[in-house]
Amino acid sequence: MKGTLIWITGLAGSGKTTIGKLVYSELKKTHQNTVFLDGDNYREITGQLSSHTKEARLDVAMQIARMCHYLTNQNINVVCSTISLFKQVHAFNRESNENYVEVFIDTDIEVLIKRDQKGLYSKAIKGEIKDVVGIDMAFDKPEACHLHLKNNTKTELENNIKEILNHINIK
Ligand SMILES: Nc1ncnc2c1ncn2[C@@H]1O[C@H](COP(=O)(O)OP(=O)(O)OP(=O)(O)O)[C@@H](O)[C@H]1O
Ligand SMILES: [Mg+2]
């Protein structure tokens, strides 16, 4: 038996962590063999907090993807929240995980700039920082995602959790 990878991707502030944690909590109730892996936590755990260049982002994204596969291969379900918007990472996930659900959290850029949880967008717009995905760094939209969800409002958030849980079909 192989686990399922639920890959929750989107720009900074789109709601990946919020959604991932809620999906994880629900799934854990019925499937003990479930873990949550957040891109920010992965960077902390592995001491890779400093670099956000395109090369560093791709490198970390591939590490996260390989870690997820390592776990699903042992029948662990992984809810993974990470930006990691690279087509080669999406392709790797699809090829390597028997059970794969790719969820694109597509929050409007105006909403992200308003939320600005980490101050990234305001600083990037003022030119104070570089390497912000969606502002001065291009990204690959997931072309073949299983779920493409808007997450601009609280109502959408609630619906998104239901939609993801409905879509997951774990034995
Ligand atoms: N649908 C929603 N409506 C309103 N606020 C939301 C919604 N979803 C998430 N939020 C809020 O937006 C902020 C960013 O959410 P979250 O931290 O989950 O995003 P993220 O995609 O994980 O960001 P990052 O890439 O920076 O880690 C949080 O304050 C969260 O409470
Ligand atoms: Mg997050």
General description of the model:
This protein has about 170 residues and is an alpha/beta fold. It has helices at about 15-30, 40-45, 55-70, 85-95, 110-115, 120-125, 155-165, and strands at about 5-10, 35-40, 75-80, 100-105, 145-150. A five-stranded parallel beta sheet has the order 2-3-1-4-5, sandwiched between helices. The protein starts with a strand and ends with a helix. Helix 1 (about 15-30) crosses helix 7 (about 155-165). The mean pLDDT is about 95. It is globular. It has one domain (about 5-165): Rossmann fold (3-Layer(aba) Sandwich), CATH 3.40.50.300.
Task: Give the termini distance in whole angstroms.
Answer: 9 Å
**Secondary-structure class:** alpha/beta
Radius of gyration, rounded?
15 Å
**Main β-sheet description:** 5 strands, parallel
Class, according to the CATH hierarchy? Alpha Beta
CATH superfamily: P-loop containing nucleotide triphosphate hydrolases
Q: Within the CATH hierarchy, at the fold level, what is the topology?
A: Rossmann fold
How are the strands of the largest sheet arranged? Answer: 2-3-1-4-5
Q: Mean pLDDT score, rounded? A: 97
Identify the quaternary structure here: single chain
The bound ligands are: adenosine-5'-triphosphate, magnesium ion
What is the overall silhouette? globular
CATH architecture: 3-Layer(aba) Sandwich
The arrangement of helices and strands along the chain is EHEHHEHEHHEH
Residues in helix, %: 40-55%
Number of domains: 1
